[in-house]
Amino acid sequence: MSVEVIAVGGYEEVGKNMSAIKVGEDVVIFDMGIHLDRIHIHEDTDIARMHSLDLIERGIIPDDTLMKDVDGKVRAIVFTHGHLDHIGAVAKLAHRYEAPLIATPYTMALIEKTIKGERKFKVTNPLQVLNSGEKIQISPDITLEFVRTTHSIPQTVTPALHTSEGIIVYSNDFKFDNHQTLSPPPDYQRFRELGRKGVLALIVDTTRAAEDDQLKTHSEKIARLVLKDIMEEPLKEDTGMLITTFSSHIERIQAICNIADESNRKILLLGRSMERYCTMAETMGILKLPETASVYGSPKAVNRALARADENRSEYVLVATGHQGEPDALLPRIANGKTMFNVRPGDNVVISASVIPNPMNIANRNLMERRLKSSGARIFTNAHVSGHAGKEDHRDFIRMLDPKHLIPSHGNLNMLAAYTELAEEEGYKLGNDIHILRNGQAQVFNGGV
Asked: What are the DSSP calls for 316-340, one per residue?
């Protein structure tokens, strides 16, 4: 029985992730994400009224029209975690397949919210929740297992497809973090067990494979310590405190709230996406907000909260969207003087997020920081650690799984090539057992491990 890996999206860019695995006549799809760079999309953007064909043409969502030529039946659509570059296209594409959507509880809750907000298509696929450590039979020849891992959003998993030809591991995204407060460490023992059973192919993200500055990604424990060092003394002053981070980074938001709660300040979590991710996480018992914290998403509610904070800035900590400097997100609008909160000399701004490296983000972030500085704010930009594996994490993962074949993904050609170089250090060879695919291409494996 042959196994075919079909690269639908995410093999030429960071984002727009979608892959299909064909085992005999059965197909399993992994992820349906959007490409955040192609339009002015960020965590607050709504694409619910846009048509899928228009989004495909613009390169915003995967071009899954190639699936019409795949001779097989889609049995399941599986999601690794709840970031938009993995679930953002579900409401645009899932209705084309008569297959259940499978995800962990938090990821599924975010998918349901996306589906409910959709205005163009009706998505009626069955929803199947699967926890990490659990398995489900997809077809007589395929069993799906969710293996626990860590990332920058709760309940991220590494799916493993068990087939008669070997195991296919789909790892987009992951980091090896042993010190998160909301998520247990990755299940290293299970990864090693899979390696002993026989991994036919590892499909793996390469987002940080080309970076040499941090060979092993730091734990969130480091971010917590840095945030505490930055925030502790300014919280005692009569100045403003504004913090921005990824709205989906619940682990980071929990840390910020815990530090702020040690002061006498009230915490305001502001922005539409902040409300979406945090309210969901709090409802599910993942995020534990202090009693002093409030979440506001609608423009009117945000403006009222900002007006209160502007009058008594020493009584509040503002946690806002806009870490990339996106012009219509909240912190850039504050920097531009377009809200009820005016930055004053001595106010402290903590940017707990790295710049996502593309020219527009770099320019927007630089402009936002310059405007904040011109208003007299102190800016701290170093309160962040990545959610993606570094080079040495990738090396460890290869050694745990000992896969027969490697398929780098979730990156541009430079990232795929950097991962290939690393894999060759581990004894693999491009064109033999390392396979670089482009969107729309496929790799067929005949025979098991």
From this structure: EEEEES-TT--TTSHHHHHHTT-SS
Summarised one tens digit per residue, pLDDT across range 387-396 is: 999 999 999 9
For residue 406, what are the β-bridge partners? Answer: 202, 434
Evaluate if residue 357 carries a pLDDT over 80: no
> Does 2 count as an annotated binding residue?
no
Is the preceding peptide bond at 177 cis, omega within 30 degrees of 0? no
218 is in an annotated binding site: no
- Give how far the C-alpha of residue 141 lies from the chain's centroid of Cα atoms, to the nearest Å: 30
Residue length of the chain? 449
Q: Is 249 annotated as a binding residue?
A: no
Position 50 confidence tier, pLDDT thresholds 50, 70, 90: low
Does 63 show up as a binding residue in the annotation?
no
26 is in an annotated binding site: no
3-state secondary structure 383-444: CCCCCCCCHHHHHHHHHHHCCCEEEEECCCHHHHHHHHHHHHHCCCCECCCECCCCCCCEEE
* pTM more than 0.70: yes
CA distance 304 to 145: 47
Q: Give pLDDT tens digits for 141-183.
A: 999 999 999 999 999 999 999 999 999 999 999 999 999 999 9
Token pair 């696929």: residue: 125
157 is in an annotated binding site: no
Q: How far is CA 233 from CA 221, 240, 323, 380, in A?
A: 20, 12, 23, 13
Mean pLDDT of 414-440: 95
